[in-house]
Amino acid sequence: MCATSEKKSTAVFIDLPPYTPPQRGLLSWLPSSWVPYAELIRLSRPIGIVIIYSPYLFGTLFAAVVSPHHPTPGSLLKTNVILFAATIFLRGGAVAFNDLADREIDGRIARTRHRPLARKAISPRNAHLFVAIQAAIWLAILSQLSDRCVHYAIPLLGLVGIYPYSKRVTDFTPVVLGFTVAWGVFIGCAAMDIDPIDMATDDVAAKTYALCCFYLSCALWTNIYETIYAHQDIQDDERQGVRSMAIPLKGSVKSVLSLLAVSQVALLACSGWLIGAGLWYFVGASLGVAISLGTMIWKVNLREPSECWWWFSNGTWFVVGSIVVGILAEM
């Protein structure tokens, strides 16, 4: 970065406090050399793990409903414990790779200026090595379930690699992120010995269509919460020329989010109809999600960053809970 750019960045943050090591919480107990890596994987913000893990959970529950083998609660729980453990490393590697790609941009944004790579607390070389280790551990854990899980995991690595750079070519990066995060639905099915490709036969084609509807509904959900999350930085993004879906939709964001929410609920309902789900599935996975998303979109003040964060982190629990209750009602 040239000297003029450095002075400009410094001027932007002249009234903001400098970086200070964590004084409270888990990170304050870690050795100082570990803190940058803990910050890199967002250890203090575990909601990201829940968000990324949710499609895996949905996939396992969907597979349990459509499977002719009727898996026991114990086997379902064991599979999800392993998938959750794997998700910890997937999330760590994904956000670290994202920060690697965005380290120069993050240094110019108020909320992200203290991230480890932006403040040069971790070198790019060490960060690349760290990402590789996280990915290797993630694949190693998935391999404990089945080779099929690994086969479905490989394409996800490509999607994770594409996402950070999609910000350079389009404002609609949540679309890319949506297809990436939702891929966990397929891995969750594979973990329960239900191969999404093998389901695409005449006798179970409806189940394949149902799974695709579920996948697309998760992708739309990602677009909703990611757009709300992006409003935390909208002023900095506009000033720095950073691409974000929140910017071109400015003035009509809630209308677009409402349309996405209606589409998500419709896809969940279509998935239930295709598998012959009963009333309680639609009460939970359709009505429950509709109420959760409707309340979030109606109540959130997109001009207030703290509210965007609150609804991003807490709204997740309502949506996930509604879908889980709806699917469990079918088991």
From TrEMBL:
One GO molecular-function entry: 4-hydroxybenzoate polyprenyltransferase activity
Superkingdom: Eukaryota
Leader sequence segment: none
The keyword Transmembrane helix is assigned to this record: yes
Membrane topology of this protein: Multi-pass membrane protein
BP GO terms, sorted: ubiquinone biosynthetic process
InterPro entries registered for this protein in UniProt: Prenyltransferase, UbiA_prenyltransferase, UbiA_sf
Record field: transmembrane: 47-69, 81-101, 122-143, 149-165, 172-194, 206-225, 253-274, 280-298, 310-329
One Pfam family linked to the record: UbiA
Keyword Translocase: no
Obligatory cofactor(s): Mg(2+)
Pathway involvement of the protein, from the record: Secondary metabolite biosynthesis
Subcellular location, record wording: Membrane
GO cellular component terms given for this protein: mitochondrial inner membrane
Keywords (A to Z) from UniProt: Membrane, Transferase, Transmembrane, Transmembrane helix
Main localisation: membrane
Similarity annotation: Belongs to the UbiA prenyltransferase family.
Protein name: Uncharacterized protein
Organism: Cladonia borealis
